[in-house]
């Protein structure tokens, strides 16, 4: 197991992308892997569990819009504050999915 204090180069790429997800938007674990062209949802989840605390982790969700297990309440708080489109207690993945393109910050 990698030391928690030393992210791998792959982990750095995942974390960099997560930092760029705009407020109110989400990407699934699989979306992150697909955008990077490497790894898969499980690898992204592993990176987030080890090193994701310093990035907006609530913007990375399961493909059905559900938050990471054990973080539901905190995710909802962040999502409501950011205006993330919701379907009940999950992100509305169709409305909130970010495709990785820069957005205007008007």
Q: In CATH terms, what is the fold-level topology?
A: Arc Repressor Mutant, subunit A
User: Radius of gyration from the CA trace?
Assistant: 13 Å
Overall pLDDT = 92
Helix and strand sequence? HEHHEHEEH
Oligomer: single chain
Question: How many β strands by DSSP?
Answer: 4
Q: Cα distance, first to last residue?
A: 43 Å
**Portion of residues within helices:** 40-55%
Strand content: 5-15%
What is the CATH-assigned architecture? Orthogonal Bundle
**Main beta sheet strand tally, sense and closure:** 2 strands, parallel
Strand order of the largest sheet: 1-2
Question: Could you name the CATH homologous superfamily?
Answer: Winged helix-like DNA-binding domain superfamily/Winged helix DNA-binding domain
So what's the CATH class?
Mainly Alpha
Low-confidence stretches: none
**What overall geometry do the principal axes of the alpha carbons give?**
globular
How many separate domains make up the residues? Answer: 1
Total DSSP helices:
5
Keywords: DNA damage
Organism: Streptosporangium pseudovulgare
Protein name: Methylated-DNA-[protein]-cysteine S-methyltransferase DNA binding domain-containing protein
InterPro entries: ATL_DNA_repair, MethylDNA_cys_MeTrfase_DNA-bd, MethylDNA_cys_MeTrfase_DNAb, WH-like_DNA-bd_sf
